[in-house]
UniProtKB/TrEMBL annotation:
Self-association state and partner proteins as the record states: Homodimer.
GO terms assigned for molecular function: identical protein binding; pyridoxal phosphate binding; transaminase activity
Database matches in CDD domains: AAT_like (cd00609)
BP GO annotations: amino acid metabolic process
Classification via PANTHER family: ASPARTATE AMINOTRANSFERASE, ASPARTATE AMINOTRANSFERASE, MITOCHONDRIAL
Cofactor: pyridoxal 5'-phosphate
Lineage top rank: taxon: Bacteria
Family: Belongs to the class-I pyridoxal-phosphate-dependent aminotransferase family.
Native source organism of the sequence: Allisonella histaminiformans
Key words of the record: Aminotransferase, Pyridoxal phosphate, Transferase
Lineage of producing organism: Bacteria, Bacillati, Bacillota, Negativicutes, Veillonellales
Residue span, Aminotransferase class I/classII large domain: 36-404
Record's protein name: Aromatic-amino-acid transaminase
């Protein structure tokens, strides 16, 4: 095939198993009826009737926006009130000590892009967990970096600190900067949550790795599912471990409105930098604003203005928290149904704590998913297993789903 693409672009193509499976499920539901199809692919909250959930308080504020509010250009960095609100909503009562700055981004993906692009060199390896959102691979490779993985969970079912330390120390010995993308809260695709002690252990390992060196570590906690990871105050306590770190450790929190405000398609988020050094904080804003201007320019005004309106009114924040709590509990109930039935059938799954997804580890995931589709059941095949979106499957449809999965596994001869 004749190509005119530049060297760094040749051979690239977008193939997303998640959207491919979802498109099939949606098309079949349109044909047969939603009640005849189980769509366990969608990374969005669907209610018990299969409708997309958009929080009521968010809908109300959107309807009130004036043309100027939703059509005006936003500042490159983002509206100041919006950035303050992102910081407050992210950390709550667990704001870490240090200089904290923020820049708007198109969702959490924008944060990942800038962190990789601005804090690593071409050819560097980026450290990520073995269980991770597939878009991490694309962000890393498109920026001409390489992927290095470590085991997220050890044989005892806890954060694999030993492998994290091994991979971290090796990269620090080879690179000036080591960027770590760590989705340790309601992990996509497993639902695993690191404890405060595990976050502290990871930070201690980073501190030890760069102590008395001229090396830097940039830790990027991806907290996309934060608001569905546990009780509001409790699930945020780990943020405190990012305070008072040496100046050669920069933490960049990847915060998004996609889930916590159910604004998936509005593509709005913020990168929140935490550092003990004022100069690093200024540089953080300067270089990331520059990259924003050079890529997407500025971000969407409407979701920023809606968030500002909500966060300036204590009554609206209370309503926001109530709605989030309701859907968090609904998702947990769905997950509990599946896990109980899976346990009874001997189906293994990666330790799930909270979040949108459960992962069933296995070889031959594609064959099992193909077999399930014959029964109008759609899940996402991964390299090492199958992802089940508990956020999108009603409690009624969840009942018996583990049995159907087991039958499909048995029929194609897949063992865990």
């Amino acid at each position: 095939m004749y190509s005119i693409a530049a060297k760094q672009a040749k051979g690239k193509f977008a193939q997303d198993n998640i959207f491919a499976a979802n498109n099939k499920a949606v098309a079949l539901a349109d044909k047969l009826g939603n009640d005849k199809v189980i769509n366990a692919t969608v990374g969005s909250i669907l209610d018990e009737d299969g409708n997309l959930v958009v929080l009521d308080v968010v809908q109300e504020e959107y309807k009130k926006l004036t043309p100027r509010q939703y059509s005006s250009y936003a500042p490159i960095q983002g509206y100041a009130e919006y950035l303050d609100d992102c910081i407050d909503q992210c950390f709550g009562e667990s704001r870490p000590a240090g200089y904290i700055r923020a820049c708007s981004t198109p969702g959490g993906t924008g944060v990942l892009h800038h962190a990789v692009h601005n804090y690593s060199e071409i050819g560097d390896e980026i450290l990520i967990t073995d269980w991770h959102w597939g878009a991490y691979d694309s962000v890393i490779k498109d920026n001409n970096r390489k992927i290095r993985t470590f085991s997220l969970i050890n044989k005892e079912g806890h954060f694999d600190l030993d492998d994290f330390r091994i991979q971290l120390n090796d990269l620090v010995s080879k690179q000036k900067n080591t960027v770590i993308l760590l989705n340790g809260i309601a992990n996509n695709p497993t639902g695993y949550c690191m404890t405060v002690a595990e976050w502290q252990a990871a930070v201690d390992a980073i501190r030890a790795a760069v102590e008395n060196t001229d090396k830097n570590v940039i830790l990027v906690p991806d907290v996309a599912y934060l608001d569905y990871s546990g009780e509001k105050k409790e699930c945020r306590k780990f943020f405190k471990v990012f305070g008072n770190l040496p100046k050669n450790i920069l933490v960049i929190v990847a915060y998004t409105l996609s889930k916590g405000f159910t604004l998936y398609g509005q593509r709005m988020g913020a990168m929140i930098g935490i550092t003990s050094d004022e100069g690093v904080a200024k540089e953080f804003v300067d270089i990331n604003q520059y990259s924003s201007r050079a890529t997407w320019s500025n971000c969407n005004s409407a979701p920023q203005q809606a968030m500002i309106a909500i966060c300036r009114d204590p009554a609206k924040i209370e309503k926001l928290d109530e709605e989030r709590k309701f859907y968090f509990e609904m998702i947990q109930q769905r997950a509990n149904i599946f896990m109980k039935e899976a346990d009874e059938l001997g189906i293994k799954y990666v330790p799930y704590i909270s979040g949108f997804f459960i992962t069933i580890p296995m070889e031959g995931a594609q064959a099992v998913c193909d077999k399930l589709q014959e029964d109008n059941i759609f899940m996402v095949p991964l390299k090492k297993g199958i992802r089940l979106a508990v956020c999108s499957v009603s409690k009624k449809k969840m009942q018996g789903l583990a049995g159907k999965l087991k039958a499909a596994m048995d029929e194609v001869g897949v063992r865990q």
